[in-house]
Fold:
Amino acid sequence: MSRPIIAILRGLQPTEAAEIGHALIEAGIDRIEVPLNSPDPLDSISILVEKFGDQALIGAGTVLTSQQVNDVARVGGKLVVSPNCDPEVIHRTVELGMQSWPGVYSPTEAFTALKAGATGLKLFPGVMAGPSGLVALRPVLPAGSLIFAVGGAGPENFAEWIKAGADGFGIGSALFKPGLSVQEVADRARQIVSAYDTAAR
Structure:
């Protein structure tokens, strides 16, 4: 069963990509982004696509330029996540048939992103907006707009965010940090999936 959770693997090394990817998918997380400010991120994305491209949605985070979108597409990535709302990046992502999840914080950014063709919206930083910010934003957005809370959303408050209207989440350091063993990441992934399943009931 797929959950609306994007694993953010900032700092992932290509040498650990396959094992970490396997651990996440086994736990029930099948959306994976490698931020482009990680070591050799395109190598890691390429490895994940080769191993798990038929089982998971793989791509990049911290995508800031159209050229970076091209680079991600070249290695087979199908997911583009950004911390900001840049219509050029969104347009290029959509042109290449990839999912576009730009970062938004205000109604202006949200509508700009949707107009440009974004697949969904990354409410970021979630810790600043809070569930109350999402409650205020949600009614003005077009019905069916997807919003994932990122930064400040996790197992301890999934239920609060879902009640506020969050469709899903991006999880970073609560799931993966450089130096964690594969087993530690697997354990964290299982706990996060369990917490999500409980909150989503």
User: Anything to note?
Assistant: The chain has a mean pLDDT of 98.
